[in-house]
Amino acid sequence: MGVSPVLKKYAMPLGIWLLFAAIAVGLWLGLKNIFYLFNFLYIGTGLAAGLALFAQGKKWARNAVQWVVGLYLLVFLGAFGRENMQIEGFWYYLFLGVFEAATIHYAVAKIFGPLIFGRGFCGYACWTAMVLDLLPFKTQAGPRRRWRDVRYIAFAASLLFVSALFLFGVHGKAEIMWYAFGGGNALYYAVGVALAFVCRDNRAFCKYVCPVTVFLRPASRFALLRVRVDEAACISCGKCRRLCPMGLDINDAKKRRENAADCILCLRCVEECPQKALKF
Description:
The protein has helices spanning 5-9, 11-31, 35-55, 61-80, 87-96, 101-111, 114-117, 120-124, 129-132, 150-167, 173-199, 204-208, 213-220, 239-243, 256-262, 268-272, and strands spanning 228-229, 278-279. With 280 residues, the chain is mainly α. It has a two-stranded antiparallel sheet.
């Protein structure tokens, strides 16, 4: 007996929802805090709903999910909850030995989670990218590989900044981290928009500057969920490469792991492939 077409169509959204539901229940019971039940059910439901809408052919689904999840992380957890959700917040709570929202967020979305869903965070939940994706440069104008080391400088700077607060015994660290969250976000938006116009590429910030990619890329190389190519159906027309906001040649067999490390699962290639040779 074959698999129901409806079940097959919505298997991915259902799988994502069940994964986040399991995380939600596990953290709720393990940490005795019902907030985590709400938090991960909200995020999982948002992601699953977006994928289900994409399965129905709604091209706006991914961007809608970006705003639903991204604003929740930025405004509800960040601004109202006073949690520094940037990488500086991760270092801060890690040094404190506190397993709180920012630490858990990084563990699930950016360190271990990418082994399953790759850089899905970049495509569906990043509050910086949700704004940058509104800019007019949807595809890569040209690679600037010499800029890719900037991400490591930004990564090291974030670690050194937080380390200095602890090493020098600075008072009022929590307040400093609160202002760093606001200032850091403003800086990210300013640099991201400027780079988009300089490079004519909305995702230039993600490719060259974002320090979080230092966490994301290694695990994403082995992601379980990724775009796959039916080589028998592919006619090497190059449309997927021209459409990809990350400038990836998804059907290059020699770069499969490198492509997985940078793919944000926007699924434009899957949607636009004339031969339907790409599957997610």
